[in-house]
Design goal:
With 349 residues, this protein is α/β, with parallel strands linked by helices. It has helices spanning 38-46, 104-107, 149-152, 155-167, 183-194, 207-215, 228-236, 250-258, 281-284, 300-308, 314-317, 327-337, and strands spanning 2-8, 11-16, 26-35, 66-67, 71-79, 91-94, 97-98, 118-119, 132-136, 140-142, 175-179, 199-203, 219-221, 240-245, 260-268, 289-292, 318-323, 343-347. It is 28% helix and 27% strand. Strands 3, 5, 6, 9, 10, 17 and 18 form a seven-stranded mixed sheet that branches. The chain has a six-stranded parallel sheet with strand order 13-12-11-14-15-16, with helices on both faces. Helix 6 (207-215) links the parallel strand 12 (199-203) and strand 13. Helix 4 crosses helix 10 (300-308). The radius of gyration is 20 Å and the shape is globular. The model has no long low-confidence stretch (mean pLDDT 96).
Amino acid sequence: MKAMRWHGVKDLRVENIEEPSALPGKVKIKVEWCGICGSDLHEYTAGPIFISEGTPHSLTGEKAPVVMGHEFSGQVVEVGEGVTKFKAGDRVVVEPIFACGECEACRQGKYNLCDQMGFLGLAGGGGGFSEYVAADEHMVHKIPDSVSFEQGALVEPSAVALYAVRSSKLKVGDKAVVFGAGPIGLLVIEALKASGASEIYAVELSPERKSKAAELGAIVIDPKEVDAVKEIHARTQGGADVVYEVTGVPPVLTQAIESTKLGGEMMIVSIFEKEAPIHPNHIVMKERTISGIIGYRDIFPAVISLMEKGYFPADKLVTKRIKLDEVVEQGFDALLKEKNQVKILVKAE
């Protein structure tokens, strides 16, 4: 089958590899759409981060080159021995987390914090940038007919956003700020709407992304035009209840901290490629809290239910659809060069 594999930094190759089998406990899926994630971009430009290079991943036994892609939807074509929850023809998405099931985090049910945690499409196990994937039964979730395959490809990134908001101290009626209106930032805006935030501010430079944030209902602040921190304090009468940092840019981290109110919370949602210096007094003197999340857990069903109600709309978030053969030039490179792109979906044909 055709698949796109990571061989190294700026070295992605569409190749023909062996098609996966429906082994015992596995669900074989024909991939419909797969989104390019910010984590995929990080691996492309600065990896390996989550990809194992040289030494095989402890849970998958795989190392580079690996098939990429973890935001995908598809249709079940075959199930392995022992699989009872799925049958051929089911429309599904995959929760792409590998966990050991034995460490302290796993024993507490916090499988996204597993000591050996890995992502399907990064740590091995196949990936969505291919024609077929075979995933463990417990990782697979059905989607209803009312949720399109394109919408299904947004379940995974939407899960990050909803988990971030649920994990924060946000209460109904609170005021929130999202620094960075890229794909995850826009989905955080949607999650905040679903969670009852009374005011949602988006701090963004890109004209196209500012427009998308406004379309989703956020009040947009351009840091080129105003001092974002002062503007937020003025508009919220002292700072936001919760601020979400979704840029991964070190200087923005300080701005996000300073934009929270007395006793407010700043939630880090992004992955940083470099260290980000902060001054502890910005936290101590205002009794602020800094939190962070990685991935998600136990949240896919909630995301799918919200999608049935119209949240996380693909028609507003997907800006480009391409074929697998175009994934590097029209996908990864386009996201780096074209700031008007939000979410690019890829189809293997």
